[in-house]
Amino acid sequence: MAYNRVQFQQKLDRWRSYMEDFCLPSWDALPDMELYMDQVISLVNRYLNLIPQDDTNPVITASAVNNYVRLRMMPAPERKRYSRHHMACVIMICVLKQSLTLAEIQRILPPEMTEENIHQTYNDFIGKMATTTELFIGQVAEIASQVLTPENDHGCESLVLHSAVSSVLYKLLTAKLSALQTLPNATEEI
Predict the structure, then answer these.
(1) Which of 3, 83, 117, 178 sits between 20 and 30 A of 160, alpha carbons compared?
(2) How many domains does the chain have?
(3) How far apart are CA 111 and CA 170, in angstroms?
(4) Is residue 44 a part of any domain in this protein?
(5) What is the mean pLDDT of each run of 10 residues along the chain (190 residues)?
């Protein structure tokens, strides 16, 4: 596939600018009042606007939230109302499901669904998201500066391929590391 290098670079610059400004809401910035399902969905879609979505492919749906509750990935709502700790769970699950299976996410999220555990995990999650995003932006900029040169006719393709291979390797690493919790002699498996 042929890319227009100038348009590719402009898109990459817009992405970098967006990612430099993006951050997930802190625990205290999440609503501290009880919300109904449609409010949860609306807020999560707004918070996670970095994930490609449209009317036919939203980030989250009511049936997905119900499924997460059924799978015990998050606590059940109280009287059909969702609180801050529910919002935190949905945000983490929606971000992680971009590259992980629900089974892998279940191994990462705390099995004890107390508000304190969710609070602690969410704070750690948004901290990791912020520092990793900053590191990632730098890595992409470094690679782009090496391959997106006027003399490299395949620089755009090279960057796309690098991104694809990196995502595969990070997914494999995550699967191996999260599986360590369930394997009897886990140290011998990696």
Answers:
(1) 178
(2) 1
(3) 23
(4) yes
(5) 80 92 95 94 93 86 96 94 96 95 89 88 96 94 88 87 90 85 56
